[in-house]
Amino acid sequence: MSKIMDRQGRLFGKISIIDLLVILVVVVLAVALYMKRNVMEHTSPVTPTTSIVYEVKIPGVRNDILEMYQIGDEVYDTDNNSGSPIGTITDIRTEPYQIGATYTDGTYNYPEVEGRSDVYLTLEGQGLITDGRYYVNRTYEVNVNSYRNIHTKYVVTECVITEILS
Question: What pLDDT was estimated at residue 120?
Answer without folding.
Answer: 97
